[in-house]
Design goal:
Blueprint: E1 4-11, E2 26-29, H1 35-46, H2 49-54, E3 72-78, H3 82-95, E4 100-116, E5 126-140, E6 151-152, H4 156-177
Parallel strand pairs: 2-3
Antiparallel strand pairs: 1-4, 3-5, 4-5, 4-6
Helix pairs in contact: 1-3
Length: 203
């Protein structure tokens, strides 16, 4: 495609699969979005200051004036932004306890239009269409229908974070204390406890 330049890209809009209550914030995550900015806005709509201070997570902005705290929040993304949307949802669930989750997967079509750099060469324009994955993640303080596909009950995320933290601590302890018995690499003595003269071997 060295003889072409991309003119524009058009993504087919996807419709939210959830029946949302009025004024539910919809956070659209893009490939170039910064997670810190996304979380700042999302937490400001669902988290209160007393809860943040209680959890020891630091001070979090309250809902902007005229915007009351919401009972539900939606993350949506397509293509390379899907993994970033999942990360944002997991962080929000860790910060705000008791959130019910409903996840829906779909696909959309992205159309790229390419035009030749030099029209006199005789090349025609090219239109390329490709499928992109789309994800919708609904987080709700109110209970959701647990029979729906993609439902995740509260608390499972906390157990996952706790298990990961325990595994990291265990790996760190094993790394520090590895080889203390028998191989001489642990703390309290080396493999050669004698004088430097002993390292030369028998004379």
């Amino acid at each position: 495609m060295e003889n072409y330049s991309k003119v524009h890209s058009t993504e087919q809009p996807s419709v939210c699969p959830f029946g949302l209550v009025a004024d539910t914030p919809e956070v659209r995550v893009k490939e170039g979005s910064k997670i810190r900015n996304l979380l700042r806005y999302a937490l400001s709509r669902v988290e209160t200051k007393p809860q943040a201070e209680k959890d020891g997570e630091g001070e979090v902005d309250e809902a902007p004036p005229g915007r009351p705290l919401c009972r539900q929040l939606v993350f949506t993304a397509s293509g390379k932004g899907v993994s970033k949307a999942i990360t944002c949802a997991e962080v929000v669930k860790r910060r705000v306890r008791g959130l019910h989750q409903l996840t829906s997967l779909a696909s959309t079509t992205l159309t790229d239009v390419w035009e030749p750099l030099e029209a006199a060469v005789g090349l025609d324009g090219i239109t390329v269409s490709r499928k992109l994955p789309v994800i919708w993640i609904l987080l709700s303080k109110d209970p959701l229908d647990h029979n729906l596909p993609g439902y995740q009950a509260p608390g499972r995320c906390d157990n996952l974070w706790t298990r990961d933290e325990k595994e990291e601590v265990g790996a760190y302890k094993r790394k520090r204390g590895g080889g203390r018995s028998g191989d001489g690499r642990g703390r309290g003595g080396g493999r050669y406890a004698g004088s430097p003269r002993d390292l030369k071997g028998p004379r």
